[in-house]
Design a protein that fits this description.
alpha/beta; single chain; four-stranded mixed sheet
Length: 298
Amino acid sequence: MRLDDLDPSNNVRDLGSGGGGGFGGGGGNILFALLPMLLGSRLGCGTIALIGIGAAIFMTLGGGGALLSGGGGTTGSGGQQVAQQKACDTPEELQACRVMTSTEQTWTKLFAADGQRYPAPVLNFYEGGVQSGCGQATSAAGPFYCPADRGIYLDTAFFRELATRFGAAGDFAQNYVIAHEVGHHIQNVTGTMEQVRARQARMSQAEGNALSVRVELQADCYAGVWAAQNRDRLEAGDIEEGLRAAEAIGDDTLQKQARGTIVPESFTHGTSAQRMKWLKRGLESGSPAACDTFSGAV
């Protein structure tokens, strides 16, 4: 995907190793600690957006303001001061920063068409572990979005694992991951996440999981919308790379690899077929209106 002409986004920061800031502790930490044990494998893209929904039952979701990259430090867990590093200074980070610029341009245009202002999220780079507004997380969680501070958290080492462990190499596979997390941000600022949280509070575990699947598939669709809106920048093989990534991180595929068995009632992200279907839906329509995963079958 051709993004070389775009300047890196200003809505980024590099927290380094073990950095973090914003909201801390509380029920979010408990949820972060328990979920790896409950799922038995890496959480995968976007899971912590749903952790944030669950954590909201225990902690108020404040509207985190924009945090721009720049000088100074930020307070990490335990109150220590963590110096921020320069963001966008590696090839992987630079690509992600340009993807963020592209998503900002795209969603600003789409929001403006509805007479609304798009409040961009913040992309936070980190290594190893991070304290987010939704609690403590490690790289094992994969990239995630935290609704409490409107931040996307990314350890770019995940991109190497995406290529080597999951067989989903290519720049557009990486772009899809970021665009998916931006999709969760869209859900947050439009009120979808809050509605889901309220519904899940009254549901059984299996019912809540099924609703989480719809949240994730909509984020996949939104990622496709972003790509469709930038079709002139796509190169040969890009769409195939994105679909291959979507297939690789389907719940059924991951469970079969990790356990050898599939437990559909535990799905939280959707099957490989569902993830590819909704990414395609966004790609083919180019319209957020086509991404209603909450009506009918998915």
